[in-house]
Amino acid sequence: MKIHHIAVQNFLGARTIDLPLTQPVTLLSGMNGTGKSSLRDAISFALTADLCRISKKGEAAALISEGATSARVFVQTDERDFEVTISKAGKITDGAAGTEPHAALPFVLDPSRLARLTDTERRGFLFGLLGIETSHKAIGERLTRKGLDEQKIAAVLPVLRAGFAAGEKHAKELASQARGAWKAVTGEAYGDKKAEGWQPAAVDVAGDPAKKAEHARAQVGECEVLIASLQQQIGAARAARQAFEAEAIRRERLRDQAKMADRIRDRLKTAEENVEACRAQLAAAGGGEDPRAPGSYLLRGLASVTAEFVAVADDVDPELTNRANAHLAEYRKLHGDPNTEPGDPARADEIRRGLQTAESGAANARRDLAAAEAAAAELSELEKTPLEARASVGDIEEQLRALTTKRDEWRADERKYREAAGDAERRAQQIEDAARHHADVQQWLAIADALSPDGIQAEMIAEALDPLNATLAEHAALAQWQPPRIGPDMLITVGGRAYSLCSESERWRADALIALTIAQLSGLRFVVLDRLDVLDATGREDALFWLSDLAEAGQIGTAIVLATLKSAPAAAALPAHIASHWIERGTLIATHTNQQALEAA
C-alpha cells in the first residue's frame, strides 16, 4: 500500500494537515502537543475505522477539535481513497464502510501491538500472516503423517472445526473413556506401565472355584442389602437428630420466655399503679377536662346541674335518680368535680400524655404476661414427654464403612474365583480386550499431544517462523540493531533477552523491525513509526538511513515517522528518499527534503 496524499481537518489536535507524500519516507516532527499523534490516529481511523481514543461510536463527537463543528480525514492510496467525516452530532460517515481492512494494518499502524498480544493471539495472527493452513482437513493430514489411527483421526476432525484446544480436549476425554473401558475389563486402575502386556493373575484355589465364586457373590448380595439398610438408617438418624435439636431449642426458648413471667408481673403492677396515679393527678388538676375543647363549658354546666338535682331529688323517681348518679360518677371519673374550677390545660395535657404512656405500658405488660404464661403452659405440657437421646450417626457410618470394605473384599474374592474357574479362551479374550483398550488410550493420548500447543501447532509455527525470523535478522543487520526473534512459544526476544526486559529504546527498535517485517510479508509495504524521539540523536539518524535504504531497495512503499523535536531537521542532513515536515499547533507549516537541499546547492 502506497499513500499519495493525506488531508486532515479538525481531528483531535490535527487541525489543518494537507500532506502530499512525495517521498517513500515522510518525517513529521514538532513540539509536544502539536498534533503528531492525532495525525497518526487520524490515519488509523480512516484505514481501519479504529476509534482510537474513545470506546463507542456514540462518543465520536469528542474526536472533533475544540471549537470546530466537524472533522474530516482523507487518505489517498494506490489502491483506493479512504475518507471519513464526523458531524457535529457525532455521526460518522465512512466511505469504506462494509469493507474489511487488511488484517495486518493494525500492526503496521501501531508497531508495539504484536508485543501486547497474548501468546494465543500472537499465534493466531502469525498463522494468518504467514499463510499457515489450519483447516481441520490440513490438521488431519498432519495427524495421518504421524502414523496415528485413521479412524480416530476421522472421529476428532469435526471437533477441530472449533480449534486445536477443542480437539485436544475431545481426544483427552476419549482417552479417559478408554481407560475406563480398560478398568472395566481388568478390574484395576489404569496405568501406562501396568497396562503394557497386562494379564490376569493366575490364582490357585483349593476346592471348586465356581462354587466359591457363587458363595462370594451371595455374600456380596447380603452385604449390599445391609448397606442399603444402613444408608436408610443414616438418613433416619440424621432426620431424628435434627428433630431432637430443634425440639431442644424450642423448649429452651419457651423456658427463657416463661422465666420472664415474674418480672413482667412486677412491670404490670408498676404500670397499673402509674395509671391510677395519673388518673388521680388528672382529677386533682381540674377533672381532666380540657376547657378549650368544644362544648366543655356546656358539659361542665350540665354536670353541675345534675349534681344539684341529685342532691335535692331524694323523693323523685329513684330510677331517674340512679341514672343521673351513674352519669355524674362517670363525669367525675373522667373530669373531676364539676363544681371545681378547671385546672391548667397545659398541665392536664401533660398528665394525659403520662396516662396514655402508663396505659400503653400496662397493656404491653398484660400482653407479655399472657405470652409468658402461655409459654410456661406449653413448656409444662412438653416436659411431660422427656427428650430421648438419639443414635449417633457416626456409629452407623462406621458400620457402613466396615460393611462396604467387607463387600469389596467379597467382590475381589468373587473375581478371583471366577478367573480361576474361567477357561483359557475367556482369559485370552480378557487379555485381548485389555490390550485393545490400552492401544486406544495410547492413540488418543498421542492425538491429544499432537493437538496441544507443543504439537502440530508448534510444528506449523516453527515452519513458518523461519522466513519471519530470517527477514527480521536481515532488517536488523541492515539497521545494525540487535535482532528480535519470535520463538515457537510465541515469546519475543531481542538479542536473546526477553522483550519485556529491554529498555524503551530497545523495544522501539524491535517494534520497528517487526512492523517493517509484517509490512513486507503481508504485501502492505506501509508502516507508521511514532515516537522516534525515544532514540538518541545517533539512533534517530541510523533509523532514518535504514528506512531510506529500504525505500531505495523497494522493500517499502510508504513509511510515516513521527518525532517530538525542538526544530525540523536540516534538509541537507536528511538521507535520500525522505521528506521532512514541521507541525505546529495542529498545522503543517514547513516542508524540507533532501532533493530541495540538492537543488538549492
Describe this structure in words.
The structure is a single chain. With 601 residues, the protein is α+β, with helices and mostly antiparallel strands. It has helices at 36-48, 105-109, 113-116, 119-129, 136-145, 150-156, 164-186, 192-195, 209-258, 261-284, 296-312, 318-335, 345-382, 393-421, 424-451, 456-479, 504-522, 537-552, 594-600; strands at 3-11, 14-20, 25-30, 71-77, 81-86, 92-94, 484-486, 492-494, 497-498, 526-529, 558-564, 578-584, 587-593. Among the domains are: 1-102 and 524-601, Rossmann fold (3-Layer(aba) Sandwich), CATH 3.40.50; 136-198 and 422-452. The chain is built from 19 helices and 13 strands. The strands form 3 sheets. The protein has a 5-stranded antiparallel beta sheet, with helices on one face. It has a 5-stranded mixed beta sheet with strand order 10-11-3-12-13, sandwiched between helices. A 3-stranded antiparallel beta sheet has the order 7-8-9. β12 (578-584) and β13 form a beta hairpin. The protein is flat, with a radius of gyration of 49 Å.
